[in-house]
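Record type: monomer structure entry
Structure origin: computed from sequence
Chain ID: A
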Amino acid sequence: MAYSRLTKFEIQIMETFWSRGACSVREIQEAFPEASRPAYTTVQTTVYRLERKKALRVVKRISNANIFEAVISRNDAQRRLIHELLSFFGGQGKPVMAHLIETGSLSLEDVKEAERELRKLARKDTAR
C-alpha cells in the first residue's frame, strides 16, 4: 500500500493506535505524558491528516466523536521508513550497517539474525 511519508509526530500518534487499538482524538491526546501533552487541536489536525494519508480510518462515531483505527501496521511503517533511508544512500545498506556497528547499535545477535534471514533468502532464490 502506497502512502505518504509520516512525520515524527504522526509516528508518535500511530504508536498509540498500534498499542491501544481504535481510539478517539481525545484518547490519543491523553496518551501523551501530561508534561509534554500537545493541544487537542494539534492532535485532531494530525489525526485527520493521517486519515487523508490513508494511515487511519474512521470505524465508528459516538455522539460527535469519531473513533479511528490504524490502516497500516507498525511493520509496514517501519519497512517504508527503512526503504526511504536506504534510498537516501542510493539503495546501499553498507553505510547504514557501518554506522550501526560503529555506534554499538548492532549486537552480535542482530548479526546472527541477519545471517539467518540471508540464508533463507538464498534458499528461496535457489528454489526458484
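Annotation 1: Residues 108-127 form the longest helix (20 residues).
Annotation 2: The chain has a mean pLDDT of 91.
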